[in-house]
Amino acid sequence: MKIGEIRELIRLLDETSLSEVKIETDDMKLLLKKNGAEVVSNPVSVTHSVSSAPVPAGSTAPAASAVVQEQPAPVSVEATKADDDESGIHVITAPMVGTFYRAPSPDADAYVAKGDKVSNKTVVCIVEAMKLMNEIEAEAEGEVVDVLVENGQLVEYGQPMFKIKVS
Questions:
Q1: CATH value of 77-166 in 2.40.50.100, 2.40.160.60, 2.40.37.10, 2.40.50.320
Q2: pTM for this predicted structure
Q3: Where in the chain is the domain with CATH 2.40.50.100?
Q4: Nearest 5 degrees, angle CA 76-CA 74-CA 115?
Q5: In 10 A of CB 67, how many CB atoms?
Q6: Which contacts qualify for 83-86: CB closer than 8 Å, 24 or more apart?
Q7: Tens of pLDDT along 98-156?
Q8: Is the dihedral of CA 165, 128, 111, 152 positive or negative?
Q9: What span, in angstroms and rounded, lies between the C-alpha atoms of 90 and 165?
Q10: What angle is formed at CA 37 by the lines to CA 46 and CA 64, rounded to 5 degrees?
């Protein structure tokens, strides 16, 4: 099983009412659970980009072991909202796994830059997922104080992409 297939399974699990997905083959076992965020894995044939420490069958490991090591762990939406209330900063997070683009095309200017004023309907970036370009709106009115992702970088579900100082 390739890492992209595992990511897609995680995304699909998150978008459905299913609470658990279990896949077993001759050389791999994978168990994904919602809300408990437990993962059981024995990655015999999985590439090195997945956590390289095998987990014995029947034991559990935290969800971070299933996340690609090069990517930051997904951020809890509840934690982000708590941070917003305390500091007046709204964090725009990735609504899905995909590729982050700051501009509508390679030769165009970025949608927004640090210091730009935005409204709640301002498009701030595109996240490409499965060949679909998804425009992401600011959902808050204020000023862009930080761009947390590089153009062309893969983003995980819930990963912070922008910080907006709410006005």
A1: 2.40.50.100
A2: 0.50
A3: 77-166
A4: 85
A5: 19
A6: 84/166
A7: 999 999 999 999 999 999 999 999 999 999 999 899 999 998 999 999 999 999 999 99
A8: positive
A9: 6
A10: 50
